[in-house]
Every structure is written in C-alpha cells, then in structure tokens.
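Protein Entry — a single chain follows
Fields — amino acid sequence, structure tokens
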Amino acid sequence: MLATVAVQIPYPLVGGAARSALAVVTVLLFFVASTAHALATRGPLWTAGFLAVTVGGGLAVETVGVHTGVPFGRYAYAGSLGPRLCGVAVVVPLAWAMMAYPTYVLVRRHRRAPVRAAVLGGLVLATWDLFLDPQMVTAGHWHWLGGGPALNGIPLTNFLGWLVVGTVMTAILLALPDPTDGPRHGRRSDRGDERIPLTLLAWTYLSSVLANLAFFGEPGVAVTGGVAMGVVLAVALRPWRAERRADDPGRWGWR
C-alpha cells in the first residue's frame, strides 16, 4: 500500500515519459496491492473469480469499446501506456481490477440489498472516472472520436458506459461466495483488514481532488469529481439503518 501511495506523490511534478511511466507503475502497484489483499483475506478461489471478472471483463468491454464505440463512445488508445492487446493498452484492464476491489470492499456492507450495492459500486467507479478520463486524455494516453454532449471534454456517454459496466461488474463480484462472510470474520478485528483497500480508495479520491486543484490547473475536474465521488462515498460508507439493525453493534468497525 505504501509503495502505491509513494509513486503517486511525484506524479504531478514530472512530465513526458517519466509521468507516463509513473502512471503505469502506479496501476501495477495498486493492482498488486488489491490482488494480494484479496488473496490474503478471501483466498485463491475468490481471487481467481475476481481476476476473471475484472481483468477479463475489463479487457472484453474495452475491446468492444475501441472497435464499436459501445458502451463508452468512440475512442482510441495511443502507445504511451505500453503494449496493446486487441487495441487496448494492457495496463487498462489492471486498472479496472485495482479500483473494482476496494469498491467491492466498500459496497459489500450493503449486500443485504444487492441492487443498491451494485449500483453504488457502479457509481464509485463512474465518478472516479470523472477524474481519470480528463487526466489521461490531456496526457495523450487516449483520445475521443466524434462529438456529442460532454463534461470537462469527455463525452457523457463515457460516464453512462462506466456506470453500466461498473454496476454489472460489482453485481457479479457480490454474487461470488465470499469466505469473509463466515462466522469467524464477523468480529471487528477481522473486519479491520478492510482498512488497506479502503485507505487506498480514500487516497485515490483525495489525491485526485488535490492534484487537479493544485498541480493540473483543472478546478472544474476537481469540483465535478470531488463533489460527485464524495457524495457517493459518503452514501456508501455506512450501512443503512436496516443493515445496522440486522448486524451486531460493532460488526462493521466504522464507529
């Protein structure tokens, strides 16, 4: 986790090839942190399913996207993020996985209402992309083809595509049997393990707001992403009253 945070600190202070390299390294370290935590807390079977859904699913939907424009809109990747597979930068499906995991950890506290949990997961991912897409387009890592309604230079179809894909991806992850649902994992000490992915999620949010305000000169992106993702995180952070009544008083560890 510390390595993931450390490599992001100099990101806004460098440019060109160095910034592109840091972007790739950040995704790789974040992906490793998410996968390692999943493996340590949820075991190899759940982790294999998680990787199939997020990496495999991410590659599949991005491949369809770059060749058809569905569901995000027409776009194309440059070569600045490294090797491409089927027209998609290989690092991109890993980015889907790196953020899908802490998102899953956050919204699974709403698993008694699976539709709500899945939609919240989709909203977390879609609002994160309000930061990601403007930054990556400005850096030249991909570009959009065609017009239509846009927000901060990014087509609104992209947000809708992220929402749909993120919701479906989260729903599938929530359907996987999670070993931490067992009685042994009901104690607060076991739930405390979730602090690692949740801290990475919080860092991603806060650093994105700060970087756009102080370094990238993008106050519109900072405000749009900051408000949208902030509201979603606030809603998702605690279980609703029904879940609090159904569980033990200290079950969730967020008091």
Observations:
- DSSP finds nine helices and six strands in the chain.
- The longest strand covers residues 75-77.
- The two ends are 23 Å apart (CA to CA).
- The first helix runs from residue 2 to 8.
